[in-house]
Amino acid sequence: MTLAVCRSVTVSYGAGDARVDALSGIDFAVERGDSVALLGRSGSGKTTLLHVLGGLVEPTSGGVDWQGRPLSSLDTAARGALRAHGIAYLFQGANLLPYFTAFENVGFASLVSPDDADPSLAPRALLELVGLGKKADSLPAELSGGEAQRVALARALAQQPLLLLCDEPTGHLDSDTGERILLLIEALQREFGFALVVATHDVDIAARLPEHVELHDGRLLHQEAAA
User: Fold this and answer.
1) Beta bridge partners of 216
2) CA distance 222 to 204
3) 65 and 71 in contact (C-beta within 8 Å)?
4) Over the chain, what is the mean pLDDT?
5) pLDDT (tens digit per residue) in 24-44
6) pLDDT the model gives residue 185
7) Of 74, 195, 116, 90, which Cα lies nearest the Cα of 64?
8) Quick one: pLDDT at residue 50?
9) Can you count the helices (H) and strands (E) in the chain?
10) How many CB atoms lie within 10 A of CB 182?
11) Angle made by CA atoms 101, 104, 108, in degrees to the nearest 5
């Protein structure tokens, strides 16, 4: 099942001599259950491509389909519903609401889940799943970087995503903590079956994923399965 398709997507900023193409003619598809690494240096277009896939950025030209339907055909409410349930993000920083506890941060995402949501995806159950049941009442400032990222992962799972978009998810963590986060993401993908796209400049992280897409100056150099 195809989830998202970019068709000749270009994203440009500025005009005339000042025009910069963050993405240029990108053709890219994500299937259900995929695990894809977006490789590229800073400024290569990785984050912009994630934002295009998630409906946060409109292409200057070309188009994006979600489950066979053009994103451009969705109204504001439908786009919001897609971002609330269907596509979830995990950023380099956890981006937690600072005055909400871990439980409340996850619960905020749960508010937009369907009425028939699985009780195993309730906030406390999700915090238990990522090993933070005892931190439910902690504020973000009381959490370590790795703990905050696990709360962010629980929050993403509360949206019951079909696609999880990760933007340098371990970039601010030490190597041991980053490894634990990656192992957790991999385990949760096996359990929940969401598609995974990870933007990274780290070839070691990319090597963990079976499919690779390399970007350079906004252009897709190649897409391949890992050896």
Assistant:
1) 219
2) 18
3) yes
4) 90
5) 999 999 999 999 999 999 999
6) 96
7) 74
8) 96
9) 7, 10
10) 19
11) 145
- Could you tell me the two tokens for 116? 């028939």
CB 88 within 8 Å of CB 163: yes
Measured CA to CA in angstroms, residue 167 lies from 8, 102, 124, 227 at distances of 22, 21, 25, 23
With tokens 């030490």, the residue in question is: 174
Structure tokens at 144: 């370590």
> What tokens does 121 get?
């995806």
Q: Within 10 A of 58 (CB to CB), how many other CB atoms are there?
A: 13
- Could you count the other beta carbons within 10 Å of the beta carbon of residue 221? 13
Distances (CA, A) of 8 to 23, 160, 163, 218: 9, 29, 21, 12
Map tokens 């504020």 to a residue.
Answer: 139
Tell me the pLDDT tens digit for each residue of 162-201: 999 999 999 889 999 999 999 999 999 999 999 999 999 9
Q: Give the number of other Cβ atoms within 10 Å of residue 93's Cβ.
A: 14
Which residues lie below 8 Å from residue 48, measured CB to CB, with a gap of 6+?
11, 22, 23, 57, 218
The predicted-structure confidence for 1-28, as pLDDT tens digits, reads as follows: 899 999 999 999 988 778 889 999 999 9
* Residue pLDDT, tens place only, 146-157: 999 999 999 999
Q: Where are the beta strands (DSSP E) in 46-204?
A: 61-66, 69-70, 87-90, 163-167, 195-200
